């Protein structure tokens, strides 16, 4: 590999160049394609959170779809309510024979509440859950299994309460958000830039966090939780904070995905999507923020291309890709790059 | 001399098997003590019990008069007791310096970790401790790339860096050659001048070099104690060791 690829200047300019290129996409692509990339960028935010918990914290969650869903549903509930005339209730509620809005839908009339719920809701749920589990020193495979069960339970709950959740169809048919029409001119580009901005800010924030002493303790607890404990640290709050922040990013990704895709449904948040989120990161490189974004984009682009021509083929391709990467390149594509360049230690960028 | 650490008639019962059986031990401030004994004598369980990894079924561990046997592990470290594990417990993906800085941190709460670099007040101490265990030149190396002996020294350094008064060293020379063992003995003797040290080891040449009083354990009990020559002359000790090597 040429030397310039490893130079400090290059590693500093590359993200800027990529960001500038990404920002130009709405000028070069159709609204349809811009919207598609925006959805994938939202997935990239979810992937960043998984780098924090799994890559640096050693906490494998197979339930990130739950937090993605909490973010997505929070914003979708607000949109459904905002589209209504005074005294009306959402269409699917009427079809199910309901006459009044459930009380817990009421606060979602407020856009501020909905936005806060999309971010704080997942973080709060994740923090409570993680605290209860980590406090009992449950980790590793057991933790992964519990989170998977959580994803299954959450999706099942939503499907079973069609009258208040929209059931299997989810929430869709959005008209406007904060007074802007989804079908309006420039809306696809605006949502794209908002998503790109959120991704960039998340990347910067995590880069800072992983480089801080917090990141060091997190990696230390991943590699030797007992050693860390017997050096006088309580690793539980570090892991809880990391897990809650990852959930918040998952919620942010879910909210932005919902805005771009115009739909949130159980099929996007259950067990299979939750595992797919981990696969993006495994392929991109679990300790690398840039790798995870790349993984989310590349896998979703491939999925889009393959599933439109061979609808049944995608799961096999993804399974094969996952096995290949995990057995041959445990540090993912990013690991492939840094091991070639002989870099030492972990590069969170 | 009043005891700094007082292991008071501790029994650890693993469902009928007594790893420690009414074992008592006093460590005076500034003392260096060596604990030897055949495999399964309860030496590692003794360390586990002192640091809170294992809770005594009966008895108590008193540190400066306080019963610490029900405290959490971090609370015991905060009181001033730290242990080097048998298999080196360094953190492989962190650099040698980050390992040391992690141990040296005085405020270990998570929100105090939300900034970069080693706090200015701790920088000199980290450098000094690295120097003390001979790893200053390796500061930037990931700990996973150190030789086995270097890992042992790094972990001894980390235990020191916690500013613990009482240091438990569980087989610090495991896997070391004679030259490394000599250097480690030198280091432990030097530690003994400022800290209270409890050493567990099998290697008799190392124990000789420490020139410290020896306690012999067998089946969770005290078998003998005295100078190394005294315990060597003890018939029971000889029987236990011969019984195991035969």
Automatic annotation (TrEMBL), chain B:
<dbReference type="InterPro" id="IPR003439">
    <property type="entry name" value="ABC_transporter-like_ATP-bd"/>
</dbReference>
<dbReference type="InterPro" id="IPR003593">
    <property type="entry name" value="AAA+_ATPase"/>
</dbReference>
<keyword id="KW-0067">ATP-binding</keyword>
<dbReference type="GO" id="GO:0016887">
    <property type="term" value="F:ATP hydrolysis activity"/>
</dbReference>
<keyword id="KW-0813">Transport</keyword>
<dbReference type="InterPro" id="IPR051120">
    <property type="entry name" value="ABC_AA/LPS_Transport"/>
</dbReference>
<dbReference type="Pfam" id="PF12399">
    <property type="entry name" value="BCA_ABC_TP_C"/>
</dbReference>
<feature type="domain" description="ABC transporter">
    <location>
        <begin position="5"/>
        <end position="244"/>
    </location>
</feature>
<dbReference type="GO" id="GO:0005524">
    <property type="term" value="F:ATP binding"/>
</dbReference>
<dbReference type="InterPro" id="IPR017781">
    <property type="entry name" value="ABC_transptr_urea_ATP-bd_UrtD"/>
</dbReference>
<dbReference type="Pfam" id="PF00005">
    <property type="entry name" value="ABC_tran"/>
</dbReference>
<keyword id="KW-0547">Nucleotide-binding</keyword>
<dbReference type="InterPro" id="IPR027417">
    <property type="entry name" value="P-loop_NTPase"/>
</dbReference>
<protein>
    <submittedName>
        <fullName>Urea ABC transporter, ATP-binding protein UrtD</fullName>
    </submittedName>
</protein>
<dbReference type="GO" id="GO:0005886">
    <property type="term" value="C:plasma membrane"/>
</dbReference>
<dbReference type="InterPro" id="IPR032823">
    <property type="entry name" value="BCA_ABC_TP_C"/>
</dbReference>
């Amino acid at each position: 590999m040429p030397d310039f690829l490893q130079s400090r200047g290059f590693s500093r300019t590359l993200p800027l160049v990529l960001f500038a290129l990404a920002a130009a996409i709405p000028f070069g692509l159709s609204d349809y394609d811009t919207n598609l990339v925006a959805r994938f960028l939202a997935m990239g935010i979810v992937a960043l959170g998984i780098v924090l918990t799994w890559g640096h914290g050693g906490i494998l969650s197979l339930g990130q779809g739950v937090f993605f869903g909490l973010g997505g549903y929070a914003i979708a509930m607000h949109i459904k309510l905002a589209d209504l005339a005074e005294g009306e209730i959402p269409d699917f509620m009427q079809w199910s024979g309901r006459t009044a809005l459930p009380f817990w839908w009421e606060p979602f009339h407020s856009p501020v509440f909905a936005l806060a719920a999309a971010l704080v809701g997942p973080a709060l749920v994740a923090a409570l859950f993680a605290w209860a589990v980590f406090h009992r020193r449950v980790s590793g495979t057991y933790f992964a299994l519990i989170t998977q069960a959580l994803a299954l339970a959450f999706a099942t709950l939503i499907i079973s309460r069609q009258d208040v959740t929209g059931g299997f169809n989810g929430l869709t048919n959005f008209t406007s958000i904060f007074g802007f029409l989804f079908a309006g001119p420039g809306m696809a580009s605006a949502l794209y830039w908002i998503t790109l901005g959120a991704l960039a800010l998340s990347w910067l924030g995590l880069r800072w966090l992983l480089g801080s002493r917090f990141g060091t303790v997190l990696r230390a607890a991943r590699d030797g939780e007992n050693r860390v404990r017997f050096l006088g640290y309580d690793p539980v709050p570090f892991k809880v904070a990391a897990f809650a922040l990852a959930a918040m990013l998952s919620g942010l990704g879910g909210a932005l995905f919902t805005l771009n895709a115009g739909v949130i449904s159980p099929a996007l948040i259950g067990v299979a999507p939750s595992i797919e989120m981990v696969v993006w990161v495994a392929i991109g490189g679990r300790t690398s923020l840039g790798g995870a974004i790349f993984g989310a984009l590349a896998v979703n682009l491939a999925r889009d291309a393959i599933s439109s021509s061979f609808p049944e083929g995608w799961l096999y391709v993804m399974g094969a890709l996952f096995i290949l990467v995990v057995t041959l390149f445990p540090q993912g594509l990013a690991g492939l790059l840094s091991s070639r360049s002989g870099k030492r230690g972990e590069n969170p960028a | 001399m009043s005891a700094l650490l007082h292991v008071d008639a501790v029994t650890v019962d693993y469902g009928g098997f007594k790893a420690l059986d009414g074992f008592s031990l006093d460590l005076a401030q500034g003392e260096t003590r060596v604990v030897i004994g055949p495999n399964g004598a309860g030496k590692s369980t003794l360390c586990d019990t002192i640091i809170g990894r294992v809770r005594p079924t009966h008895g108590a561990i008193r540190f400066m008069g306080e019963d610490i046997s029900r405290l959490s592990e971090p609370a015991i470290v905060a009181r001033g007791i730290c242990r080097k594990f048998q298999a080196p417990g360094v953190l492989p993906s962190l650099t040698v310096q980050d390992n040391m800085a992690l141990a040296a941190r005085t405020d270990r709460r998570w929100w105090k970790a939300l900034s970069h670099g080693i706090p200015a007040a701790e920088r000199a101490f980290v450098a000094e401790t690295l120097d003390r265990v001979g790893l200053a030149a390796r500061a930037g190396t990931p700990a996973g790339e150190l030789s086995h002996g270097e890992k042992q020294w790094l972990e001894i350094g980390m235990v020191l860096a916690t500013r613990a008064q009482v240091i438990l060293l569980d087989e610090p020379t495991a896997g070391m050659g004679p030259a490394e063992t000599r250097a480690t003995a030198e280091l432990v003797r030097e530690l003994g001048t400022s800290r209270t040290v409890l050493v567990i080891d099998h290697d008799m040449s190392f124990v000789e070099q420490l020139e410290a009083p020896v306690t012999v354990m067998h089946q969770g009990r005290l078998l003998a104690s005295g100078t190394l020559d005294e315990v060597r002359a003890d018939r029971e000790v000889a029987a236990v060791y011969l019984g195991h090597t035969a």
